[in-house]
Amino acid sequence: MSSDISKKPETVNNAAKSQTTGNTAAKEPFLRIAKKDTTSLKNKILIRALSILFALVLDALFIFFVTGLNPFAVYGKMFAGTFGSSIRFSWAMRDLVSLLCIGVALAPAFKMKFWNIGAEGQVLMGGLITSLIMVYFGQSMPTWLLFPVMFLASILGGALWGFIPAFFKAKWKTNETLFTLMMNYIAISFVACAVNILRGQASSLGKLNMSTKIGWFPMFLGQRYNINILIVVLLTFGMFFYLKYTKHGYEIAVVGESENTAKYAGINVSKVIMRTMAISGAICGLCGFLLVCGRDQTISTSTAGGNGFTAIIVAWLAKFNTFYMALIAFLLTFLSKGAGEIASAYGLNDFAASIIEGIILFCILGSEFFINYKMIFRQKDKKGEN
Amino acid sequence: MRLKKTLCLILALAMTLMMVACGDGNANAGDAGNIKIGVILVGDETEGYTAAHMEGIKTAAASLGIKDDQIIWKYKVEENSTCYDAAVDLVGQGCNMVISNSYGHQTFMVQAAEEYPDVTFVSMTGDFAAISGLDNFTNAFTKVYESRYVSGVVAGMKLKELLDNGTLSAQTQPNSFDANGNVKVGYVGAFAYAEVVSGYTAFFLGIQSVVPNTVMEVMYTNSWFDIDKEGAAAEALVANGAVIIGQHADSTGAPAAVQKLLDNGTICYSIGYNIDMLATAPTAALTSATNTWSVFYKHAFETVMKGEKLEADWAGGYAQDAVAITKLGESCAAGTAEKVAEIEGALKAGTLHVFDTNTFTVGGEKVTSAPCDMSFMDWSTMTAIYQGETVEAIKDGYFAESEFRSAPYFSLRIDGITEDADPVQ
C-alpha cells in the first residue's frame, strides 16, 4: 500500500502529460474515490503521521506569515505546554482523564447508536450531588462513610439523568439527541441555582469546605487528582472488557447494528437501551464526583467545561475503543495546553493559538478520509511510460 | 523500510522541538533585574476591566524599567482551579510575584500562596489577605467611591443647571419628579454587593451635595458585563423618570441607550465607569469614574524589587492619584471643572469625607454606629474560613470606607435610594 502513495505524484504527472499531448481518448474520470475494504496498521500510522506533518507545515506558514514568529520556537512552546515541567505533565494527565472518563461513559451509548449529547448535564448532576453532600453532611458524617455516600449518590444522580431520556426513547420513541441535549440545560440551571444558594452573601462561591477540607480527596502520591487518574485508568480497562467480552457488550453491539436483528435474537431492546444509558450516565456522574472531590473542590456551571461535548469527538474518533480514546484525549489535551502556552508566551490573542490548534485537528480528522477511502487516478498510460 | 524512515524523520523533528523548548527556558532564566511578574487575568485586552489592569501593569513596568520578558501573562483564566494551576505554573517559570485581577481568583491564589511562601501573591479586589495569616498574600483596591462621588458632583451640577434654566421642570418632564418634588436619578448596578452599594451611595451623595432634593432608583443586571441588559436597565430607569443614569457595570450599554433617548427628546444624561464614554455617547455622557491601576502596580513592583514585604491591604484614592474622572463632556454645566477641582482638592487633603454621617440618614436617623464583620465567611456552612474582627466603621463623624480593609464594606441602605427587587430582564 505504501508504494501506492509514493507513486501518486507520478500518476499526476502522467495525467498532466497526457493532457498536454492532447490525448482526449480517455473517458475515465481524472479522479475517483472508492471505499477501502481494509487498511493495514502500518498505513494507518503512516497516513496519520503524514497528516500531522502536513498540519505542522500549514501551521508554520500561518505562524510565519500572520504572526511573524519563528514556527519552530512556537512549536517548542506548544510542546512545553504539556512537557515543559513535571507538574505541567501531571496537569495534562489530570485533564486527559477528565475528558477520557466522559469518553468512556459515552462509548456504550454510542456503540448502541444512542446519541447521548447529555454528558455535560450528567457530569454536572453527579458533581452537584457530590457538592451538596460535601457541604451539608460533611460535618455530621465520618470520612469513611462520606466518600462512599458521595460516590454512590453521584453515580445515582448521573444514572438518573441518563435514564430519563432512555426511558422516554424506549417507551415512546422520543428523539434522544434533543432530549439529552435539553437535559443539559436543566442540569446547568440546577447547578446555577445551587451555586447561588451556596455562595450566600459572597460574590463568588470559592472552594467548598475551605476551612475544614472535608470531602476533599486526600493527597495521593503528592496530588489529590492522582486518585482521579487511577480510577479513570481502571474504568478504561473495565469498559473495554465490558464492551468486548460480556453478554451486555454483545447486546449493545447488536442493538446498535440493527434493532430488528436484536428483537429477532430475543434481546429486550428497551431494557438494553435503558440499562446502557443508566450506565453511561452513571459513569458521567462518577466523573462529576471525581472533578469536585479530586480536582476543583467546588462546583460551577463550568465544572464539566464543555468536555461533555468534546468527549463526543473522542469517542467517535476512537470508534468506541477505550484505549484509542486515551490516545485521542491525549492529543486534544496536548493541543489545548499547547495553545494556552503559546498565547501566554507570545502575548498572542488566544484566537490565534486556537487557529494553530484547529489546523492540526482539522488535518488529523481529514486523515480519516484517506484511511477509509482511496483515490484512484486515471492511469491510462502507466504501462507505456514505464 | 519507508515506515522506519518516516518514523526517524518524525523523531528527529520532535527532538529539534525539544531542543528549541529547552533553549527558550534558559534564555528566560538569565534576565537581569530581580523581579519577574506573573499576571493572571480573567479576560484579555478585548474586555474593558482586564484591559485597564493590563494598561496599569504595562505603564508601571515601563516607568520602572521592567522589560517585557519579565512579565508573563495568562489570559482568560476562570475563577476555578485553573487559577491555581496558572499561579503554580507562573512560579515554575520563575515569577517571584503573581497577580490576579478578579475577585473570585482569591481562594485559589491563597492556596498557591500557602505553598510558595517566597513568592508575593496579590489578589486584586480580594478581601481576606489581612486575616489569612500569610504575609506573602495581599489584596489591593482603589477607593473608587471617591471618584464616583466626584462624578456625582458633575451630575449634580448638570441637574442644577437644568432646573435653574427651566429646561427640567414639573411642566416639561413631570415624570421626573416624585410626589414630594424630588428629582429622580437612576443607577445601573451589577450585583447587590458592598462594592456596588458603596459606589452608588457615593455617587448619590455627590449629586445631593449639589441638589439636595433628589431620589435614586437602582436596578441590577446580575452581570458585570452585559451590553443588552445594561441598556435595557437604563431605558427602564429613564422611563421611570430618571434624569441622570450612573452605572457600576462594565459595558457601554447604558450610555448608548441614554444617548438614543436624549436624541429622541427626553432629558437624560449618563455617567459612565472605567472608560471615557464620549465616543459612545457624545452629548449624553458627562464623565466617567475610573481607576488608575498603574499607581498601585508601580508601588507593588517597587516594593518587591527592593525585597520588602507588600502590605496586606492597599487602598488608594485621590490622595495617591489612584482614582480619577475622565474628560468632561460638552454637555457638562458651566463651572463644572472648577467645582470638580475644588472637591478633588478637598478629598485629597482629607477635609472632605464621602460618607460624612451629617449628609445621610438610615431609616430617618443619623447613623452613629456601623459594626462591620471583617471575617471571610463560608456561607454554605455559616462558618468563618478566616476569622476577622468586628470593627466600628463610624469614626470622627464619617463611615471609614476602605480603611479597615481595601475591599469595600459599606453596605448601609441610606434614605432616598430604592433598590429594585427584581433584576432587569
Characterise this structure.
The relative contact order of chain A is 0.19. Chain A has a two-stranded antiparallel ribbon. The radius of gyration of chain A is 25 Å and the shape is globular. Chain A contains 15 helices and two strands. The model of chain A is unreliable at 1-21 (pLDDT under 50). Chain A has helices at residues 2-20, 41-67, 71-83, 86-111, 119-136, 143-172, 176-199, 226-245, 247-257, 259-264, 269-296, 307-317, 322-346, 350-372, 382-385, and strands at residues 31-35, 373-377. In chain A, 74% of the residues lie in helices and 3% in strands. Chain A is mainly α. In chain A, helix 4 packs antiparallel against helix 11. Chain A has a domain at 94-329. Chain B has 425 residues and is of the alpha/beta class. Chain B has a domain at 144-291 and 318-419: 3-Layer(aba) Sandwich (Rossmann fold). Helices cover 36% and strands 19% of the residues of chain B. Chain B has helices at 2-29, 48-64, 81-92, 106-115, 144-164, 194-208, 227-239, 253-263, 293-305, 336-349; strands at 37-40, 71-74, 97-100, 120-124, 137-142, 183-189, 214-220, 244-248, 269-273, 285-291, 313-316, 323-325, 371-373, 376-378, 383-386, 390-392, 394-395, 398-399, 417-419. A seven-stranded mixed sheet of chain B has the order 12-10-9-8-6-7-19, with helices on both faces. In chain B, strand 17 and strand 18 (398-399) form a beta hairpin. The longest helix of chain B is centred in the N-terminal third of the chain and has 28 residues, at 2-29. The N and C termini of chain B lie far apart (67 Å).
Number of helices of chain B: 10
Highest-level CATH class of the domain at 144-291 and 318-419 in chain B = Alpha Beta
Tell me what portion of residues of chain B adopts beta-strand conformation. Answer: 15-25%
Beta strand count of chain A: 2
**C-alpha geometry of chain A:** globular
The number of distinct β-strands of chain B equals: 19
Helix content of chain A: over 70%
**Assembly context of the chains:** heterodimer
Largest sheet of chain A: 2 strands, antiparallel
CATH homologous superfamily designation of the domain at 144-291 and 318-419 in chain B: Response regulator
Q: Give the largest interface.
A: A-B, 55 and 51 residues
The helix count of chain A comes to 15
Strand order of the largest sheet of chain B: 12-10-9-8-6-7-19
Largest sheet of chain B: 7 strands, mixed
